[in-house]
Amino acid sequence: MPQPDDRQPGAVFTTRTPRVVAARRLQRRRDRDETGRFLAEGPQAVREALAAGAVVELFFTADGLARHGDLVRRAGTGTGSRASAVDDDALAALAETVQPQGLVAVCAQRDVPLADALRKAPRLVAVCADIRDPGNAGTVLRTADAAGATAVVFAGDSVDPYNGKAVRASAGSLFHVDVVRARDAAAAVAALRAAGLRILAADGYGETDLFEVPDLGAPTAWLFGSEAHGLPGALKAQADARVRVPILGGAESLNLAAAAAVCLYASAKALKESM
Amino acid sequence: MPQPDDRQPGAVFTTRTPRVVAARRLQRRRDRDETGRFLAEGPQAVREALAAGAVVELFFTADGLARHGDLVRRAGTGTGSRASAVDDDALAALAETVQPQGLVAVCAQRDVPLADALRKAPRLVAVCADIRDPGNAGTVLRTADAAGATAVVFAGDSVDPYNGKAVRASAGSLFHVDVVRARDAAAAVAALRAAGLRILAADGYGETDLFEVPDLGAPTAWLFGSEAHGLPGALKAQADARVRVPILGGAESLNLAAAAAVCLYASAKALKESM
């Protein structure tokens, strides 16, 4: 049986429609890397993606149209984007959660070169080095955005920030900040310093107590390391200071996302006060 | 075939040994509630559980004994605890992760009545109201412990803090702080206030900016609400202030664990400075 495709206006796509098949492959990193695209699901992510001009194609069900007709219309009338009706099975195949509310968008990846992000003279940057957990990657994106960071650098062997779980955990922040991928973490840190940013390494064993860092209101890049191993020694050595969040009770450490929240908000408070 | 049990010293238990079967049922909330016991896996959790006197029985494999003989010996010689050898299949059945390093312990739940926790005159308390995600529950426990909170109250219809995922996310902190379960959240808040604690409700739409809360060094109980719905209106109204973590970028909000980290550490810093 022939499948509807984009030569049939008004068709409802199924799991076997070529464009749905191709979109579904974006659940795999290899296909995301090859195409420079990724999937974002649910109305919040789709709204942010549309605002950022990142949507290539929005797949919607009848239910999605009924509930979020404004988003479907914006995708359908936007320059460079289109909206395509799909059946419930096709949407379920494209979505990784059970509640995408009838919407899944194919988006263009948004990486910018570090030099472009630095041209905006950021006052707060988060650098994730070798972080492996996509939920943590997305949470750090969301927290960095909330704290006023304008760029997040995924350095070294970090997880793909366009992984579905990372996209969901970022709660739209992936579309707000400059996302930079830098394979060479040391070179990225050198560029951040050359741009006038102080480099602070978050390190549970650091010599400097977060509560005692002088001049936190200076433009700062925070380095965060992997969940299991922390920051590589060479990166820690490259930093201007290794800063520990003080542990006041019996816990051995904080998890990555909590430590990042405390560090980034310590800078945010000082930056706000210095303005 | 008869199975080894505790009448056969030196036996290696299997998945069909009655005590292993009973322990495995603790993966279900109903059985945890009925027995007042729960499971903790891996060397870090087992070490903390032993230090807290919470271990009832430590199941270990030959590999677990080789790697963590000190823990096995402490469990085997402790008052009220014992150590039991199991085969690899039995350990795999008891564990929820792939890397428990040959150790799973049956522990006694550690709830204390709120009155007992308050008798210690805590200066920082975290209250989780209606939080549903076990990973968040465990992360808040860990962060609260790190920030110097001495009690964490699970109020209203909150997730079971002895859920395996919560135990793992707490990274041992479940064994450090006073864990309180309070079905009636309003009564718990009233008791906290009567004990001299100021009540601050974390609320994304709160009238008070976290950066502008006066006298954060006063003894404080922080209230955190559910991931999806925030705090119930009645609890917010009961608080002395509704405090928002300021959002400086494009994010709509912080996730629960990040907001809790920022709020608890704001208090921790002020408490430390006031000492």
Automatic annotation (TrEMBL), chains A, B:
One Pfam annotation reads: SpoU_methylase
Question: GO: which molecular function terms?
Answer: RNA binding; RNA methyltransferase activity
Alphabetical list of CDD domains matching this protein: SpoU-like_rRNA-MTase
Any Gene Ontology CC annotation: cytoplasm
Question: Domain of life of the organism in this record?
Answer: Bacteria
Q: Which family does it belong to?
A: Belongs to the class IV-like SAM-binding methyltransferase superfamily. RNA methyltransferase TrmH family.
Name under which the protein is recorded? RNA methyltransferase
Query: Which source organism?
Result: Dactylosporangium aurantiacum
At the highest ranks, the source species' classification is: Bacteria, Bacillati, Actinomycetota, Actinomycetes, Micromonosporales
